[in-house]
Amino acid sequence: MTEQADRLVRYDHTDGVATLTLARSPANALGEPIIAGLTLAIDRARSDGVGAVVVRSEVPGFFAAGADLTLFDGLEVSGFLDYLDRLREQIERLGSGPWVSIAAIDGHALGGGLELAMACTMRVASTAAGLGVPEVKLGLLPGAAGTQRLPRLIGRGPAIDLLVTGRSVDGTEAHRLGLVDRLTEPGEVDRVAGELAASLASGPREAHAAILRCVDAASERGLEGGMVIERDEVAGLFATPDGREGVAAFLEKRRPSFGGA
Which of 2, 192, 216, 253 has the fewest C-beta atoms under 10 angstroms from its C-beta? Predict the structure, then answer.
């Protein structure tokens, strides 16, 4: 399984950027090999101390098509929940790691595939991409935080539209809705996502992590509670080497060199 996992989720690390390439033809279905591959790749990203992670696909036309439905035939509820929990665990690990994560979408990101992309910090997609949560068409719902992350990203009304109809949107509409952060032409997604990841990996990583914690607090704690978190986080950053370096570089009119310990 380890050899297959390495092959179906390839891991590369260059200059603080980890790239996870999904390579399970024909559609990157999120079955056991992908779950195992994500587990190994995320372990390696943590061990390497990367500052950014890019999740991309080498399968033409697909980022990831969602759950491997062949696993569900004859499956009892307990087995289904076991599969779902293990998939959710790796999606959550990707989204909560000490890095900025970017989903590079130049094809279909459906169901669990979109849930994987939504767990990332940012999404770069082409106009040819197709994004949706079609589980309702199976009499189900997206169970890897799709009903939770989608309304947080695009609002209750648009999220309900996608969830109850199961329709897909192209990259242009997804960008308009706020589901996609950077919109590109087809074939440009990997380049744009890679350049963004390289820029972030060389930046102030502690500040990135603190910003994400503050943004999460905005939806979890209300304005007053979030402002408390924000005050604590900026005070903590002010005392860090990167915080000192950023201020000094500004005053000295030079480019900052982040990464201090």
Answer: 253
